[in-house]
């Protein structure tokens, strides 16, 4: 099992996730189409060329989804009860096709569940960086995790 149980975490734990992902044109196109997002900044090269960015900007919700996805293997894979929510999602820099993204995670809070004695809530701070070490996405994720059975 790759993910950790609630009681295996401590506040301040930090992970630099090994998996990286280079964003492709197909990623952006499919995600935008699947989510019914017709924003020309994400899909129309001619339109995007006329913006301050000068090229297509990757759909921000794809970047956010990839942020969470790249972290799952080391954090909650097999130990997750449910994700309870996301907070403070910011995207301080744009992502472009061809950028390679990586994620770092820090545990910022731990608390036992009041309603489930077999679970606890971990707050993860995920930070996504591009190949230039610029932060392109960050968020807090509150995840309810199983307690390790002894």
Automatic annotation (TrEMBL):
PANTHER family: BETA-METHYLMALYL-COA DEHYDRATASE (PTHR43664:SF1), MONOAMINE OXIDASE-RELATED (PTHR43664). Residues 11-123 form the MaoC-like domain. The lineage of its organism: Bacteria, Pseudomonadati, Pseudomonadota, Alphaproteobacteria, Hyphomicrobiales. This is Acyl dehydratase. Pfam families: MaoC_dehydratas (PF01575). Signal peptide: none annotated. CDD domains: FkbR2.
